[in-house]
Amino acid sequence: MAEEKKSNNELKNFTDDLLLNKILQCASCEDVLNSPVKMVDGVGDVCNDCYQTKYSNQATISFINSKIDYIISKLEIPCKFTSEGCSEILPHAKYLLHVKDCMYQAKPCPIKSCIWQDNNFKINEHFKECHADNVIKIDSDMFSVICKENQKELINLIIINDESLMLKLKIDSGKLFYMLCTTNKTQKHTKYSVEIDTVVGRVSNNSKLCSYNNIYGSVSPDNGLNLLELLCTSEIKVTFILKNTNISGKGLTEYLECQVCKTLMRPPIHNCEMGHSICGACKTRVTQCPSCRSSYSSNSKNYSLEGICKYVEYSCKYDDKGCVQKGFLNEIIQHEEVCSLKDK
Q1: pLDDT score at 125
Q2: Per residue in 199-209, is it b (16+ CB within 10 Å) or e — as a string?
Q3: What angle separates helix 66-73 from helix 92-101, to the nearest 10 degrees?
Q4: Which of 162-176, 247-261, 287-301 has the lowest mean pLDDT?
């Protein structure tokens, strides 16, 4: 144990020395080198990103620096935002992915007209001080926003106890686009649904929360609701219902998530010919598997997944109406039979 600790300390000191002397620094962007490292004549060692964007089409002599490649693959590197408060030390293979989404890096305010810039942990205070009209405080898992028929980009900070989310919403070409992003490490919710009451009934969609950096990009076309010919008013009430997918067995969520409606499956669970699972409700609405386009047979049930369901804690299926009851499968089924929100 002592020898292992000594070895780890020596490796850390070696890494720190390389970083201090800029041995691992790209000669172009001055960030940590990433593989494959290219040695460019007259420039020095450059990361693969810089090589592809600046030097690959130039008539310069270059070759892969395999020795440096090997060395950096064995190192654990502290995050470049250590001085801002990040304590992560990561294998080089994970370093670049972490830095891209590190919550300690300075980011601009998501409201484009604002010039403020700081790290993610200060966004709440900034909104409270400078954009108070854009802050929505709620004490339940449901909230609504009102937007105009031709709503330009709307940004709101949603605060729920110790959790905060950033909402981005706009209407373009008759379609509502939206995203909800996490803004801190405390994350109770992982999913949400969106509902709009229209002249033909309620339109809804299920989505997943995004990481905060997504707020600066475009909203995915998948996160959109077509409003053309469905509304008869100039103001639109959009309701967001947050989902908490607590389960008793960690890691089961990804196996029990229906690939169509994105909710936790409960019996009956069906399989396509290639083995992809789908909940019973969605099987009545689709004829082909969304993943592989193969068909479903009438008796294609996944008995193993159905057996796991009894270990999972489910939300009431009327949670979109406001029910907060949770329980294991048999308990929640009994509750749903008498749920006060059942017929509302």
Answers
A1: 92
A2: eeeebebbbeb
A3: 70
A4: 247-261
Residue 222 has pLDDT above 80, yes or no: no
The pTM assigned to this predicted structure is: 0.58
Q: What amino acid is encoded at 289 in this protein? A: C
From start to end of 41-125, where are the E strands? 44-46, 62-64, 76-78, 89-91, 107-108, 117-118
Look up residue 72 and give its amino acid. Answer: I
CATH number at residue 7: 3.30.40.10
Cα distance between residue 276 and residue 288, in whole Å: 11
Q: 129 and 94 share a domain? A: no
- Looking at 99, 119, 134, the residue that finishes a domain is 99
Using CA atoms of 56, 62, 66, 69 in order, give the dihedral in degrees to the nearest 10.
Answer: -50
Q: Report whether pLDDT(256) > 50.
A: yes
Residues 136, 137, 143, 144, Cα dihedral to 10°? -30
Determine if residue 171 is left, alpha or beta; phi over 0 gives left, psi from -120 to 50 gives alpha, anything else beta. Answer: beta
Q: Given a cut of 70, is residue 98 above it in pLDDT?
A: yes
- Where in the sequence is the domain holding 265, given as residue range(s)? 253-338
**62 has which bridge partners?**
40
Q: Read off the tokens for 69.
A: 């490649």
CA distances from 206 to 186, 221, 243, 257, 323 (A): 22, 13, 10, 12, 17
* Number of domains present in the structure of the chain: 3
CA 179 to chain centre: 10
Q: Find the mean pLDDT for residues 100-119.
A: 89
- How far is Cα 264 from Cα 244, in angstroms, rounded to an integer? 11
Q: Are 296 and 278 in contact (CB under 8 A)?
A: yes
Predicted local confidence at residue 130, as pLDDT: 95
Residue 31 inside a domain? The answer is yes
Neighbours of 293 (CB within 10 A): 10
